[in-house]
Amino acid sequence: MPVSSHTATRPPAARPPAARVVLLTGPSGSGKTSLAARSGLPVLNLDDFYKEGTDPTLPQLPDGGGADWDAPLSWDAGAALAAIDALCRTGRADVPVYDIATSARVGASELDLGGAPLFIAEGIFAAEAIADCRAAGLLADALCLRGRPTTTFRRRLARDLREGRKSAPYLVRRGLRLLRAERSVVARHTALGAHPCAKPEALARISAAGAPNAVGAAVPS
């Protein structure tokens, strides 16, 4: 008996992604940006996906101190995930340019992987993307930088004051709040699937994720 055409036709196999992503998270000031630069890989800055200061959906601090920029809801997760997906599948994506001092997007740029099979997406909300990237087969590894909270506090405050990110009183209050919350931040990122580690181990895992035939080998369960 001949096989009918509708049973003989099979959907084409899904095309594997051209690149995979290492999600790099950790408390603000933990050294994510500098470590990503040291890796030599293309880098997607996830902080550029903050919502703008005029967005009515911004979460607010309970003490009335303004927007809570450390809450995941201050971040446009959908747009960030779309950029990660585009980079993995096509090797390029249009990404916003965000100015933290004014809490606004000030432009856009194109990120091109240049054929690289691996890139880093780094930011304090990177762990929010772990489950979706893993489900889509895009995740190479997920890492959470951790260190001494007092060291992170000093590094973060010096950076934020140097760059004029917000007013000095705001930055001091935020820094003290994050100092107290740092261990719980790391615990949350770990619960979302990120591997907690210091910089040397993070660099080693990134190198392993980029080795031939190592795709997916370092992805935490």
TrEMBL record:
Keywords per UniProt: ATP-binding, Nucleotide-binding
Q: Name one GO molecular function term.
A: ATP binding
Against Gene3D superfamilies, the record matches this protein to: P-loop containing nucleotide triphosphate hydrolases
The record ties this protein, via InterPro entries, to:
P-loop_NTPase (IPR027417)
Q: What is this protein called?
A: ATP-binding protein
Q: Which organism is it from?
A: Streptomyces glebosus
